[in-house]
Here is the input.
Amino acid sequence: MPVAEAVPKVDGMIVAEDVLLLLTDDSTGRSVVDGTRRDIAVAGALVGELAATGRLAVARTTGLFARTELRVVDATPFGDDVLDDALQRAGARGGASPAAVLERVRKGRPRERVYERLVARGILRADHGRILGIFPTSAWPAVDSAHEAETRRGLHDVLVVGRTATPREAALVALLVGVDGLAKVLPGTGLSKRELNARAKRVAAQDVGGEAVRKAVEAMQAAVIAASTAATAAATSG
Here is the structure.
């Protein structure tokens, strides 16, 4: 499979749209995980898609302080404003650790534009208001849940039935388990959270779509887990 087709779009939607949709409660329009982890998942989806489409390459530096880096090796624009902004931010200061690249992308606040895109597609509705007339609040309840339901069924088939994951499904699974949101996205499976996460980690480790995709998923998952863990630690220490 060519690298550029490693994580194909579904109905023109990028992976970040799917992960944000899955992490947003249909009724309340609010995130099922805390806002920081939601934003990490969206940024992780973009980093993973950049790597899987050949814009970012996973490399291992040599020497005493050897480490894994992500480097922009193809700056060709996608013609997609969200992905193109992520690509520009990822390569702004040269190669860096996956965690550092993730943070560069997250600082662009792509979550806001992805929500706007889902509203434009007629999938979500934007509800903006103020608490006590002062503090702004936003919610994004579902209008059309058909695509999300199909995506959930696919993840259920992979994690519960045992079907081999597509590259896109493997990326989604890695992101969701990385921000500890998988059990919330797939309730009622009959599996414990521990078993569900264990299966998810095996799926993320599968060689789906070739070596380039596997490395991209691994690097993205490691960065998401590190950032999510740090965010949780910061919240609990406060």
Notes: Residues 211-237 form the longest helix (27 residues). Strands lie at 56-60, 68-72, 127-131, 135-139.
